[in-house]
Fold each of these.
Amino acid sequence: MDTTERIACSFLASLGYQDIVYEPDGNIPPDFTVEGTIAVEVRRLNQNERGRDFLKGFEESERPLLGKLKKFLKSFGLAETVGWWVLIRFKRPIPRWERIEHTLRQFFSSLEDSPHLKKITKRIENNFEIELLPRALPVDYVFEMGAIDDLDEGGWVIEEVEYNLRLCIEEKTKKVARFRHRYSEWWLILVDHVAYGMSEESRRVFRESVNIQHDWDRITVVSPIDPACHFDL
């Protein structure tokens, strides 16, 4: 059971249910059953990017790039005279590492022994930029990751919640379609990593301005900070 599922389980227990079974049918939907009759699916409600045939959370799509970039920066070794903080700034879709590695290596190689310690900005692609800031000694590596600026992340909370709710509901609806006949009632619990639990006023505005059609018996958005903070669509 992962963190998101544990939060959902805590939420179900807070409703007074005791007969909560995890993965009752194995590694297929549903994630839980409640009282043997209610099927419950769980998903992290996060910001996503949508492609032609995929849906990826922002953190999932940037993880491979960041892993390769950190390893790449360490390859320049320990600092002897100067050091730099590295900030990356990007918009999606994130360019593939193989496409930008050569340009990055040329750029960083030219700076290894640079005596001009001032802020430097380099555009690698139209949607990918590197900024370097001088580091005061003592430092470890010549180049160390300082910050990540995802220009697609954030935004007006209610709009982001609505947009990503639609994506997540659509994804889960397709996933459970061939299992729906097994249980008479289906719930979807979405653990909110976009707004982290909207205020009562935000919920009121959300309900007044947003209408999401679905065929679930219940959809509940739960705060990851406090499962007692939740609301139904």
Amino acid sequence: MSEGRDYASIDKNDPPDCVAAHASGIRFVYLRGAFVENGRPCADPTPARVRDAWAAAGDVVGGYVILSYDPSGPSPEDQIQKFIDTWGPRRSGELPPALDAETGSKDHSSATDAQRKEWLERAYDAMSAYYGFVTTYTSLDQWNTNFGGGPSRVGNGGGWIKIPYPWKEHNPPHPESCPPTPGTLPAPWEDPSSPGAWITQYQGDAVHSTGFSSTVDCDRWILYVDDGRADVRTPWVDGQLAKLGYASVEELQTARGLVADKVVGPATFSVLTTV
């Protein structure tokens, strides 16, 4: 399992020391590209400052957008367009972009669960139209409580799942609090033919993470299907390998210059999701 971070230029975070973070074991990072503030979509300056630095340090990089579900605010399409304008095209070797499908105290407007789900799906459609493959960040509690539960096309991508755990705010990262499997997933993500690669957040608002000046969210890359063999396969992985013309994960990794560990980690997943 690979360690990662998701980062935004908030909480007085200075630009991270990407080399130090990578040396500490970080292997992937998601950077916030856009969000809504004061009723308008805004670009996060983080990508322009550190996107290339993370890649140069050896990490796999992806971007995410935090959606606002206020019917009186910017449309989901406008919010996604701000992300596209900020992040630009997905570069070779990068992770697919992600939608942050959660709501906080600022997002509890007059929108109903059904309206939030509709806006999320519209955002997913707009993002997919530009990038092709899109992942989603949510949790079972968020999905059932704020989006009405049930199936949705936003489950077609890989998952970025927040696992419920005792939050230890303003403490160092606690990787032991991250379970080795995703646990119970929202219904749309439970199909074994899905991508089968997941990111779980195991520590929110963590401090003293090497390379970061202030708070950061800690993530772990895990595999939805792992039967104990090194060569982790799912129907989705097999299908993507076939499209690319490879018989195995190891063969793809060798051909693309990746570490041939036979595991669909962040770098391998980035290749599989470009088909």
Amino acid sequence: MNIVHWISRRRQSGAAAVELALLMPLLMVPVIYLAYIGTLLYHYTVVHKAAQDAARYMSSITVEEIRSQQFAPAAANIAKTIARTEVAELMQHEGAPTVEVFCGVPRECIGIRNGPLPDTVFVRVEVYLRDPFLGQIDTGIWGMLISASVEMPYVGYK
């Protein structure tokens, strides 16, 4: 091996490190955005499942419970607790999720003394996702809103 070949080889060994150092920020931007989209999809999946489970609970309460002014709000609170418990893992550093429960689309669950039973129950869960990647993605002051709404038919067990 001659000295000229050895010197040129030695100069080339640092070139790859310099190229990597220059290109690394450009390569990390797409990776950060892909990871954020994955995080966003995971959060939506958890929020939707929480809304679905709360709606499933509300759709299966008995007719006596949904007609009672005492038990209907208690059942709605249990549904809210179900949803909040399921999204609690996501919300470790965020605010509390918003959970709304309706017995029939326009009605709160406060008991239906007279009249027809609701055809459906409706649950909406909303959370805010903040940027988990060092503030590189602008999600606004509160974060990006993730909202899931589920409407299920009320089966009304007797």
Amino acid sequence: MTGKDAFTDEEWARVRRAPTVAGMAISLADPGGPIELSKETMATLRGIGSPPTQDELLLAVSQEIMAMGQRRENPMSGFKIEDPGKAGEQVLDELRGVQAIVGAKATPEEATAFAGWLVEVAQDAADAAKEGGFMGFGAQQVSEGEQRMLDQLRSTLGVEEA
């Protein structure tokens, strides 16, 4: 089992913020209004708070992010979008780098579970609010931009669609 102590401080900071970055990817893929952003953020936090497995790595990341929230600390600290026009690429590059770190330090099973969890958190965010339409009519559950980002996340992290 792989815990926090398997990573350097810099690696751990990147691993710890990865689920939040994955959820943010959806908001960046199709920016909406404040209500939509709020729903996506809450769905991201719910996904982070309930990892799909009891692997030590996933639990350690989840517990630390939740503790940071209680202390009102930003789990995204250290991650900055340098070029807003290339935000999606930067998010994918960050998650690709994190997955490489996890793949090098964790068991293959944990690395697979971690990648799946990142995609699941992003899917939760995408499913949180309907997109488009007028007063709820004609709206889509997941917009085309969000679906593209989900597909790119799956491809980047090597996760098969369920």
